[in-house]
Amino acid sequence: MTVRVRFAPSPTGYLHIGGARTALFNWLFARKHGGQFILRIEDTDQKRTVPGAIEAIMDGLRWLGLDWDEGPDIGGDFGPYIQTERAALYRQWADWLIEHNHAYKCYCTPEELTEMRHAQTAAKQSIGYDRRCRHLTPEQRAAKEAAGLKPVIRFKAPLEGETIVPDLIRGDIIYNNVQITDAVLLKSDGLPTYHLANVVDDHFMQISHIMRADEWINTAPLHIHLYEAFGWEKPVYAHLSLVMNPSGKGKLSKRTQSFTDDGQEVLVKVSEFQEAGLLPEAVDNFLANIGWSFGDDVEQFTLEEAMPRFELKDINPAPSRLNYTKLDWLNGQYIQAMEPLALAQAVKPYLDAAGLEVNPEALLAVMPPMSQRLKRLPEAVDFLRFLFDDVPFELTVEQVTHKHMPRAAAYQAFQQMRELVAVIEPYSVETISPALMKLGESVTVNGKAGPFLGTARLAITGQKVSPPLFESMIAMGRAGTLARLDKVLGLFEEIGD
What we know:
mainly alpha
């Protein structure tokens, strides 16, 4: 079997993280088996379509590195890949179902359907279409059409027996056919519902496997009956596990934007992950861990490493909680592995957005040590604020002294540090580091450099959280470092050293 899978989002919103997980699993499966990954846009719900959503969905997939072999932008042998451009095909096969006694025209008005539901509720009956148009005579249908009623087309669902839905993840799922309603296949405006368009497209696009969210399980029996009515070969089904909120309270699927769950911010749209400074490699790794395991207790891996191990049978059908703590850890690991130039390029947009213009050489100087501390890229803004002249210098003498380096010793230490910085050559970490270590050991009561280096870092950066002292000094440059030391010495002079 040639593996052909599809990701078929609706442009009624932007790319949801649950949808991205579905796309990722489809992509992994296709790539493992040398098959095709198809992007199809299911836009028949025109009333809820969001302008720009198609482009945003494609941008999100590209950011995650999930390339498609056929789709709206690149075409393919089975297009078009936007459902509203395939309307004639759906009409053709809806008519075919009527001609072969598998479907019928329903002329019920919205008012009639509302009245029907009210009556069912009052009688404590199951809510659903009562099939009142299923057995209309030709004369009755002609009268309704003469009255100008525009019909929908409904499927003639079986009234008895069972339907078995084979699922590679969950095994056989059995439904009593009395649970299956006569669903609308074609709306009065001529556009299909999800059910008809989905089955027709999957058949004509030669989709071999359908991996989709478990919320679609209940539609599978109807789709199977449609395949059987058409006489078409059915694809293989695999319904993925439900994605839950981090707390495990409630499913994430209906969320449209970030929210707080038990005090934790939860990102929902793929664009929010991007804006939050998460790397696509980390998000891919995070998504692959939701309901599937690499094995061997390995948490961090690339998609290329996951691909040969990926098996549908290994997907856990149980609901999976999002672990955002693990996501931040993964992101930190990927940041640490970045080359300094690549990391500098990655954090620069966040600095620009904050109105902070950093000298490229200064930025590169602090990348190696800073990479060990970042969990998300925007955190670089707070780390690097010390590089800017407009950062308030609000230290006190108490903050730049230590129990092992009291005020007089601290003043002497910063004087000597200033003298050293003014003349040391070359001005580099390699020369500054041993010189300041030696200075620190000579000015502290306990003969250890730590107390001096810690207070010196605070003095130079004005921040409790910052890159290490030596790299901070290189980033600031000789002149900037001397200016900060002058301010520190001025603190002592104001109250008398």
